[in-house]
Amino acid sequence: MTDAPEPPHRMDPSGAAQHAASRRLRDRCPAAPVLLPGDVEAVAVTGHDELKELLSHPGVAKNARHFTALWEGRIPEGWPLSVYATVEGMTTADGPDHRRLRGLVARSFTPRRVEGLRPQVEQLTAELLDGLTEFTEPDGTVDLREHFAYPLPMNVICALLGVDGDSRDRLHRLFRVLLSTDSAPAQIVEANRETAGVFARVVAAHRAEPRDDLTSALVAARDEDGDRLSERELAGTLLLLTVAGHETTMSLITNAVRALCTHREQLDAVLAGAATWQAVVEETLRYDGPIGFFPFRYPTSDISLAGTVIPQGTPVLAGYLGAGRDPRAHGADADRFDVTRTPAAHLSFGHGAHFCIGAPLARMEAAIALEALFARRPRLRLAVPDEELPPRPSLVGNSRSVLPVRLDG
Length: 409
Known about the structure:
With 409 residues, this protein is of the alpha+beta class. It has a single domain, classed as CATH 1.10.630.10. The protein is built from 18 helices and 11 strands. It has helices at 18-28, 48-55, 68-71, 82-86, 95-106, 111-116, 118-130, 144-149, 151-161, 165-178, 185-208, 214-224, 231-262, 264-271, 277-288, 320-324, 327-330, 359-376, and strands spanning 9-10, 31-36, 40-45, 60-61, 141-143, 293-299, 303-305, 308-310, 316-319, 381-382, 404-406. The strands form 3 sheets. A 6-stranded mixed β-sheet has the order 1-2-3-9-6-4. It has a 3-stranded antiparallel β-sheet with strand order 5-11-10. The chain is globular, with a radius of gyration of 21 Å. The protein starts with 8 loop residues before the first strand and ends with a strand. Keywords: Heme, Iron, Metal-binding, Monooxygenase, Oxidoreductase. Residues 1-24 are annotated as: Disordered.
């Protein structure tokens, strides 16, 4: 008698216990069947080598026209993961379309351009640290995520795009709904509508008065040569750049502070010069990166990965947390945070053609932020135990909703 196959793992949209879920999936199979919200069948790839293979597999696409359940009409309006599939931009384009869109953006993320932003990032970091006491509660705590980890990357990416403060703050509130995989369908539909309206106003303002920023450059590419950038691609690119430009860096800074506060010996090593702040950033990306399970890739024909046959058109999640702590790639102590370890290549910024274009900027922002923060506040500690911090309500992002700290211990 043959044992019945194990049922697919049901993904938790609340974002709770992501590392435990990643470990269970990886131990079960590095490419395991899962159920997404709404009982949508998918596969999660959580092994380092298997994920690396997936990310550069020639038979795997990013465009949702390959998403069988979507084009068959089995995905309802307001599905909490729809934005990751249907937005038009670099992350959902393949082949020549991807190269065209990436090329338009890449000129703003050259090493020279990113390095030129360093003084601005350092100044903004200092200003935010100066202002932290203004937000300190009567009990001596301050939410470091809301008042430091969020405004730093959000202000930087909005400066690059030329998005004003009112639009910036509105987008941040809307993204909380769009990126939370436990949001109600009606909330998602409304947030999508409002987000489109915000970006329409941003584009209109830059058409009327072009500026020296990335949005004006993209608008010019659209208006001067419509074949290079459609209106939907323009809006989608702005959405993707704004989200990716602040959300992941915000979580990276948050997770690094948590890791250092719960591993004081590691913080002491950095402050003593035994490791660099860049090493802290890289180890955080490996150990507790900002992305849990990133949607989506789709096989264009049936493929086999880690012994699992993934049918054509199945949505596949990239399980970055599982890959980051895979002992086959990172050693028997992969579950240990160690800023002095000999770094192994992690996949937290992706791999292959879709490697994160903003990775140099995120790395620079996080290193500057952490060094300045702990130079001023070396006794900073969490105000509550780390395990009591509420997770971000998302199976995609990996972080905490708040980061209450005491600045002087």
